[in-house]
C-alpha cells in the first residue's frame, strides 16, 4: 500500500526501489504512464475500476506485443466467490488495510475523503 501524500507514493514508486510484478489498481484517474516505469519487465496492472482508457491501453499493449500488460477486470458478483473471500479472511490469508474510521455523525467527512481518491486503505463508517 502506497501513501499518496508522499512524493514517492504519488509517483507510485516502490519504497524499496524494486519494480512491481503486479499492481492491483483500485482508484480511477491514474494513467498507464504512471504505472509503466514502475513495473518489472513482465509486470501487470490489474485494473478493478476499468474505464474506456483501460480497455484501449489493453488493446494497444496486445497489438504491440508488450510484455507489460494492463488487465481490465470485470466481475459478476457470485455467492461462491464471496464465500471464497470470506474464508480467506477467516483463515487470515486476506487482510484489509484500513485508512480511517469515522462515526456515523461524521459520514460526510468520510465521503469527502473517499471522493478525494487518495485513501491508503478502506474508509470505515461506524454506527
From TrEMBL:
Origin superkingdom: Eukaryota
PANTHER family xrefs: ZINC-TYPE ALCOHOL DEHYDROGENASE-LIKE PROTEIN C16A3.02C
Official protein name in the record: Enoyl reductase (ER) domain-containing protein
Organism from which the protein derives: Gossypium davidsonii (Davidson's cotton)
Lineage, opening ranks: Eukaryota, Viridiplantae, Streptophyta, Embryophyta, Tracheophyta
Amino acid at each position: 500500500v502506497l501513501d499518496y501524500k508522499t512524493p514517492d507514493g504519488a509517483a507510485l514508486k516502490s519504497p524499496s526501489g524494486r519494480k512491481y510484478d503486479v499492481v492491483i489498481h483500485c482508484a480511477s484517474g491514474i494513467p498507464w504512464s504512471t504505472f509503466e516505469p514502475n513495473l518489472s519487465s513482465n509486470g501487470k496492472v490489474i485494473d478493478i475500476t476499468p474505464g474506456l482508457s483501460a480497455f484501449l491501453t489493453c488493446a494497444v499493449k496486445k497489438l504491440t506485443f508488450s510484455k507489460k500488460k494492463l488487465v481490465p477486470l470485470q466481475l459478476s458478483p457470485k455467492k461462491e466467490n464471496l464465500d471464497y473471500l470470506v474464508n480467506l479472511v477467516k483463515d487470515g490469508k486476506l487482510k484489509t488495510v484500513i485508512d480511517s474510521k469515522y462515526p456515523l455523525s461524521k459520514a460526510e467527512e468520510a465521503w469527502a475523503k473517499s471522493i478525494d481518491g487518495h485513501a491508503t486503505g478502506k474508509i470505515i463508517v461506524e454506527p
